[in-house]
Amino acid sequence: MDLKIARTQIYLELEGKTLPMYTTASFDDLVNLLPEPGERRTNIILEVARTKDDRLWYPSCGEEPCWVAANLNSASIKNFIEVSEPRVSVDYGESR
């Protein structure tokens, strides 16, 4: 089973709005993919999380993310932060 989790939250500026998106790419991958300041902007392809009805997914929305490929212009990525590892809580119930 290939479990995909959101590893990085990116902030995109689209049509004057800043939108958060979650991606499977690691923080280090994004650092390596994005051009240095002053270099020519490029398009990068990332897996981003969407909901089943094609809206932006976020962790508290109550749905599992649908991962889709997105072609993003590097100039639209304004910032990104690493998402902390999910904490797993196991409830073993009462001992019998």
Any idea what the radius of gyration is? 16 Å
SSE order in H/E notation?
A: EEHEEE
Low-confidence stretches: none
Instruction: Figure out the total of helices.
Output: 1
Determine the mean pLDDT. 86
Number of DSSP-assigned strands: 5
Rough shape? globular
Strand order of the largest sheet: 2-1-5
Q: What structural class results from the helix and strand content?
A: mainly beta
Distance between the termini: 32 Å
Major pleated sheet:
3 strands, antiparallel
Could you tell me the strand content as a percent range?
35-45%
Give the % helix: under 10%
Write a brief caption for the model:
This protein is mostly beta strands and 96 residues long. The chain is built from one helix and five strands.
SSE topology sketch:
Elements: E1 8-14, E2 17-23, H1 27-33, E3 43-50, E4 66-73, E5 77-82
Antiparallel strand pairs: 1-2, 1-5, 3-4
Structure description:
- With 96 residues, the chain is mainly beta.
- The chain is 7% helix and 38% strand.
- A three-stranded antiparallel sheet has the order 2-1-5, with no helix packed on it. A two-stranded antiparallel sheet has the order 3-4.
- Strand 1 (8-14) and strand 2 form a beta hairpin.
- The radius of gyration is 16 Å and the shape is globular.
- The relative contact order is 0.28.
